[in-house]
Amino acid sequence: MISSKITGTGSFIPSIKKENKAFLENLFLNEDGSTFSSKNDVIIDKFKDITGIAERRYVSPKYKTSDIAFFAAEKAIKDANLNPEALDYIIVAHNYGDIEAGSVQSDMVPSIATRVKYRLGISNPNCVAYDVLFGCPGWLQGVIQAQAFIQAGIAKKCLIIGAETLSRVIDKHDRDSMIYSDGAGACIVEETQEQDSGIISHASQTFAKEEAYFLHFGKSFNKNEDDNVRYIKMYGRKIYEFAITHVPAAMKAALDKSGIDITEVKKIFIHQANEKMDEAIVKRFYRLYKMQTPEGIMPMSIHELGNSSVATVPTLLDLVLKGNIKNQEVKKGDVAILASVGAGMNINAVVYRF
After folding, report:
1. How many CB atoms lie within 10 A of CB 34?
2. pTM over the 0.70 mark
3. Which backbone phi and psi does 91 adopt, to 5 degrees?
4. Alpha helices, DSSP H only, in 121-235?
5. Whole-Å CA distances, 99 to 7, 92, 93, 174, 227
6. Interaxial angle between packed helices 312-321 and 65-79, expressed in degrees from 0 to 180 and rounded to the nearest 10
7. At a CB cut-off of 8 Å and minimum separation 6, what does 89 contact?
8. Cα 29 from chain centroid?
9. What does each of the 354 residues of the chain score in pLDDT, given as a tens digit?
10. Handedness of CA 241, 246, 247, 252 (dihedral sign)
11. 351: part of which helix (H) or strand (E)?
């Protein structure tokens, strides 16, 4: 059976660092426009206790999503020692397209993937470039699609990128805005004859009843702001409860499909959305196997990088593979689960052997 594996990774971490203390002067408001009884230092301390986020990264005003997607792609291509002209597909996951600094309008034509192909200078018209809008799990869904193309015999080499500039779509009056950040991560997935490594199994789901609008676009909490401008909004408590209920089951479905024993799993690369939520998801996942969570199983980058949506998992993977996260590494033969949850509400999980 044709298999596929990741042969190169790359990421772009923006240079602008915004620490929690930078929000001390923000006017945080409730959804109805009323003020909080607590001062900002209390709000920020509670935020850090729950999310684990101490700082996040924002892109320079001169860059857009397509720019940082290109930067991450270049690194992944170099890491895989690949000629870009050999690529069959370029799949870019994002949610908001290119937004110029200071603008309130998103630009998605041509696709971000087409813009990346242009920047890479690829002449081959048979290299197909398209975007995926799948919420935070978009990059992982792109990896799943690449594997399907390879197994179907219609591709041999694919570039999958997750890139987002969430700093351009946040409401500064919404305390949830402190969660979001910018970044890009990419990988090359190639056909392989090796049967003992690569993508082994996956699971994907979309819940679209009342969950469909847990993440959405909405007006600023400041009633004096322009009523025609929309910002990213979320029902945090509902997302938390949804995630800890459904993500462990999806991870179990993927692992059970693989035929690999739970004791073989060495790492879980999970979407960096909220530290306490991620810990609860992994704890519940192991509880399904009547086990305690192994120490060091879950690398984290959220403390310094925040939540960059589609970019968190590929960035985290790249950092660990390059030895840039303390006390975290993967070895040849190690089994990992990659999992994500986000707008849709969408969930996916991939079982992978390095």
Report:
1. 9
2. yes
3. -115, 120
4. 138-151
5. 31, 16, 15, 20, 19
6. 30
7. 127, 128, 129, 130, 146, 149, 155, 158, 159
8. 27
9. 688 999 999 999 999 999 999 999 999 999 999 999 899 999 999 999 999 999 999 999 999 999 999 999 999 999 999 999 999 999 999 999 999 998 888 999 999 999 999 999 999 999 999 999 999 999 999 999 999 999 999 999 999 999 999 999 999 999 999 999 999 999 999 999 877 789 999 999 999 999 999 999 999 999 988 888 999 999 999 999 999 999 999 999 999 999 999 999 999 999 999 999 999 999 999 999 999 999 999 999 999 999 999 999 999 999 999 999 999 999 999 999 999 999 989 999 999 999
10. positive
11. strand 346-353
Q: Where are the beta strands (DSSP E) in 181-334?
A: 182-192, 198-206, 215-218, 231-234, 265-270
State both tokens at 14.
């923006």
> Could you tell me the two tokens for 247?
């993500």
Q: Which of 316, 323, 235 is CA-nearest to residue 278?
A: 316
Alpha carbon distance 255, 201 (integer Å): 7
Q: Are 174 and 221 in contact (CB under 8 A)?
A: yes
Q: Which of 241, 301, 233 is nearest to 277 (CA)?
A: 241
